[in-house]
What we know:
Layout lengths: L7 E5 L4 H12 L3 E6 L2 H12 L5 E5 L5 H15 L4 E4 L5 E2 L7 H29 L3 E5 L12 H21 L5 E7 L2 E2 L2 H4 L1 E2 L4 H7 L4 E2 H13 L4 E4 L1 H12 L1 H17 L5
Amino acid sequence: MSIFNEKVAIITGGASGIGRALGRELARRGAKVVLADINGSLLKEAVDSLTNDGYKAKAATVDVTDREAVQKLVDGAVAEYGRLDFMFNNAGIGVGGMARDFSYEDWKKVVDINLYGVIHGVVAAYPVMIKQGFGHIINTASLAGLVVMPGEISYTASKFAIVGLSNVLRIEAERLGVRVSVVCPGLIQTPIYRTSKVVKMDREKGLSMLPKGISAEECAAVILRGIERNKAIIVVTGFAKFLWILQRISPSLVLWLGKVALNRLRSEKIIE
């Protein structure tokens, strides 16, 4: 019997990519899924694809930067189902480019969605789970939350913060019966590479240099396996695990590799 059967799961950023794949895999395993996203049309398509296949799924159009909207999302799910078992704080964006070219608004938008989106989800879901005495909060960070990545400084800053937040919350929550995990995917085939804003950066050249990565569906399966095992940090892809190990063994070597990567971006004229 799946641990997800008949459980209630909210997934922000659920209309596409990893969030959508998580929704389908959870529904397939018997969960009652609430997909939340700011993109209403794409969200409807994602939920319709689940309900048409006979799965239990609902849509909620939500902007995760709006604390009250996220609170309403959680309150609504609890009112309808009587419980909340899994809160996936998954919504996120990126801005590619160099810090010198970023506007303040570029920084703020990434932090508001990536970090405050997670904080709003935690603030809304954590008290419910404490009262229940059970529940699992899963925050989506990135390999960029474990290893520095040139060309995506605001994204990296927000994801490092999510890793730290999640690890501290895990320690605090354990005695209250609440579990906390942070997901750190490497290269995953999702729309974020096409939809993210880039500043003075050649997107097509940059994408051509990236390895293919794994599918969002494969990523979702790894994440759920990590949740089943109550892993603190769920690193997805073998290469991501390798870089994380290297980071812990020799941070200075990883910094040097970052310089090499940046020099290549410049030599290939992907960035100025």
